[in-house]
Amino acid sequence: MELLEMEMVAGYAQRLGDRPDIAGRRIEAIGFQVGQQLAERYTKDRNRFTDLIEIIKFVCKDFWAQVFRKQVDNLRTNHRGVFVLQDNKFRWFTRLSADPASLPTATAGMLPGPSSSSSGASPPRPPGADLSITTPHDYNKVTAASLAQFLYFPCGIIRGALTSLGVPCTVSGEIVSLPTCSFTVCIKA
User: Fold this and answer.
1) Which residue segments constitute the domains of the chain, with CATH numbers given?
2) What is the DSSP secondary structure assignment for residue 39, as one 8-state letter?
3) What span, in angstroms and rounded, lies between the C-alpha atoms of 62 and 45?
4) With contact defined as beta carbons under 8 Å apart, do 174 and 184 qualify?
5) Whole-angstrom Cα distance, residue 120 to residue 102?
6) Which helix (H) or strand (E) holds 36?
7) Between vectors from CA 90 to CA 86 and to CA 92, what angle results, nearest 5°?
8) What span, in angstroms and rounded, lies between the C-alpha atoms of 169 and 124?
9) pLDDT tens for each residue of 38-65
10) Tens digits of per-residue pLDDT, 104-152?
11) pLDDT by residue (tens digit) across 131-142?
């Protein structure tokens, strides 16, 4: 699946190189559809969920294990509808690394990162929802700006799954250091 994502991002970047915002929206929309379909498939033989915590636990354990081949490493919440899912070794990012030349800019200033929303309009981004790269690795020479494109698809998958389970939300992603990333889920009231 990670190779599919890499090709999808490369294809949209090539076709819409001057419009990364449109490329990001399209990638996120594909992820949303995939997330909806996967959630339906993985829950067809289960009892209906009774509360929000049960749904979030399902996404962090069962759904995450099916899609990303491991469970979420850390789940935090503020008990007001915001959940942070952290994966310390996000499988899809193990083949990526940031170009060190792009890192001083990325760590000094924040780059726009993906934020997927259940509505068509772009919601205001919560603090800390932007992409910041802080890793010195240098394998594939991926620039910090292009790393943001790789977050749209998993953000869409998470939002699609939660929406399919009856939880309207926004999802944003942040790469802490490759391959560690976190996804912030803001539940809509």
Assistant:
1) 2-187 (3.30.1380.20)
2) H
3) 13
4) yes
5) 32
6) helix 20-43
7) 145
8) 13
9) 999 999 988 889 899 999 999 999 999 9
10) 322 212 233 454 554 444 443 333 333 333 334 433 445 666 777 888 9
11) 333 334 433 445
